[in-house]
Specification:
single chain, 30 strands, 30-stranded mixed sheet, mainly beta, 10% helix
C-alpha cells in the first residue's frame, strides 16, 4: 500500500510540475501544440509566434526527447526578450536536398535580446551531404545547408548548445551586433568538408568563449566586416584552426578590425592561427589590429601562418599579388609542438607588404628542436623568444 501511495504521489508531482511549467506566464512548451510523428516544425513555429508577440519576456521550451525538424525561420522583431530553451536531440532531414532550397536549417533573424540555450543538440545528419561535396574543385558546386543561421541579431546569447554533423558550416553569423557564443560546442569528423564551426561576417562585438569545436574545416573563420571580435578559452581540433579570411575574393569587402584570440588550445589541427587572402583579384581592403596571445599548439601542422597567396585548387592566378593590407598583428606567448619544421610561415603580399607584425615569445618545437620561420614581404619585430625569419 505504501509503494502504491508513493507511486501515486510521484505521478502527481510530475503532472503538477509539467502543469506549472506550461502554465507560467510567458512560457510556451511545444508539447502543448501537438507533435505528430515526432516532428516539431509546426509546434515550434506556433510557439515562437505566440512568444514573439508576448509583451513580457517569454520562453519557448523544447523538452528532453528526440525530435525531427524541417527547415525553419524564427524571425522577429519580437515585443520583448525571448528565449528558446532546447533540452532535446533535434534531427535534420537526412536528404541534403530536402531543406526547401535554403542555406540554413534553423535560422534566427531580426531579433533583439534572443537567448538560445538548454544543452540540446542539433544534429544536421550531414554524412550523406559530405559524400556529394565537391566544392574544393568545383566553384559552381551545390552548397548544402548549414545547421544555424544567425542574422541581424542584437544583444543576444547562444549558450550550452551543441551542433553536430552539419551538412556545411555549423553556424553562420551575419549582420549581428553584441552576440555571445558561450559553451557552444561543435562535433563533426575531421574528414567532413567545409564544416566550419562558426563563420562570422559583417558583424560587430561577437564573443566566442569557453567552447569546444571539433570539425573538418576552420573551427572559427572571420569573413570581411568582422570587427571587435573576441575568441577566448576555445579548444579547437580536429579542424583547420582559427582563421581570419579568406579575404579578397569578392567585391566590396569591408575591413577586418580589432580581433583578440586568447587562451585557446589547438589539438592536431591543419593550421593554428591563420590569416589568409586571395591574390589575383582587384579587391582592396585591410585587416588590422589582430591579436593572438596565450595559445597552446599540440602537434599543429602550421601553428602560425599568414598566407597572402591563398589559392586552393588553383582557383585564381598568383601573378597579381593580394591587395589586402595586413598590419598591426601580434603573436604573443604561443607555445607547444608543431607537426612541421616551419612552424611560422608569413607569406605577405608583394604589392602591399605586411606592416607592424610582432613575434613575442613564440616558443614552438618540432621533434624536440625549435621550429624555423619562413617569411616573405614582411619584417617582423622579434621580442623575447621567437624564430628568426628565413627569406625567400
Amino acid at each position: 500500500m505504501n509503494i502504491q501511495l508513493s507511486i501515486i504521489v510521484l505521478v502527481w508531482l510530475i503532472l503538477s510540475l509539467a502543469s506549472y511549467v506550461t502554465s507560467q506566464p510567458g512560457v510556451f512548451n511545444i508539447r502543448t501544440y501537438g507533435i505528430p510523428n515526432g516532428d516539431i516544425t509546426n509546434a515550434l513555429k506556433s510557439a515562437w509566434k505566440e512568444a514573439c508577440a508576448s509583451r513580457i519576456p517569454s520562453k519557448v521550451v523544447v523538452p528532453a526527447s528526440w525530435y525531427k525538424l524541417q527547415q525553419i525561420d524564427l524571425e522577429g522583431p519580437c515585443n520583448a526578450p525571448i528565449e528558446v530553451q532546447v533540452h532535446g536531440m533535434i534531427l535534420s532531414p537526412k536528404n541534403p536536398y530536402n531543406l526547401n532550397g535554403q542555406d540554413q536549417w534553423v535560422r534566427f533573424k531580426y531579433i533583439n535580446f534572443l537567448t538560445l540555450s538548454g544543452k540540446g543538440t542539433f544534429d544536421g545528419q550531414g554524412e550523406m551531404a559530405w559524400k556529394k561535396n565537391n566544392c574544393g574543385k568545383n566553384t559552381n558546386c551545390i552548397r548544402f545547408a548549414m545547421n544555424f543561421g544567425f542574422f541581424f541579431l542584437n544583444n543576444s546569447v547562444i549558450k550550452d548548445i551543441n551542433s553536430k554533423d552539419s551538412k556545411y558550416f555549423h553556424a553562420n553569423v551575419f549582420g549581428c551586433n553584441n552576440v555571445t557564443f558561450e559553451n557552444f560546442n561543435v562535433d563533426a569528423p575531421k574528414d567532413s568538408p567545409n564544416t566550419d564551426g562558426i563563420h562570422v561576417g559583417r558583424s560587430t562585438k561577437v564573443n566566442i568563449i569557453n567552447s569546444n569545436i571539433a570539425t573538418g574545416d576552420d573551427c572559427i573563420s572571420l569573413g570581411d566586416g568582422s570587427k571587435h571580435i573576441v575568441i577566448r578559452n576555445v579548444t579547437c581540433g580536429p579542424g583547420h584552426g582559427i582563421s581570419v579570411g579568406s579575404l579578397g575574393k569578392y567585391d566590396n569587402e569591408e575591413p577586418v578590425l580589432n580581433l583578440i584570440v586568447k587562451n585557446c588550445t589547438l589539438n592536431n589541427t591543419d593550421n593554428g592561427v591563420r590569416i589568409k587572402t586571395w591574390p589575383g583579384t582587384s579587391v582592396i581592403s585591410i585587416a588590422s589590429h589582430l591579436h593572438f596571445e596565450d595559445i597552446v599548439m599540440v602537434n599543429v601542422s602550421n601553428p602560425v601562418i599568414i598566407d597572402q597567396e591563398y589559392c586552393p585548387w588553383n582557383q585564381c592566378s598568383k601573378k597579381s599579388p593580394s591587395k589586402i593590407k595586413i598590419r598591426k598583428v601580434l603573436f604573443k606567448n604561443i607555445r607547444g609542438t608543431s607537426a612541421t619544421q616551419e612552424g611560422v610561415t608569413m607569406i605577405c603580399s608583394q604589392g602591399v607588404p605586411c606592416e607592424r607584425v610582432v613575434l613575442n615569445d613564440v616558443d614552438l618545437h618540432f621533434n624536440g628542436s625549435k621550429v624555423s620561420a619562413k617569411c616573405s614581404n614582411v619584417k617582423p619585430k622579434i621580442r623575447r623568444k621567437a624564430p628568426i625569419c628565413k627569406y625567400y
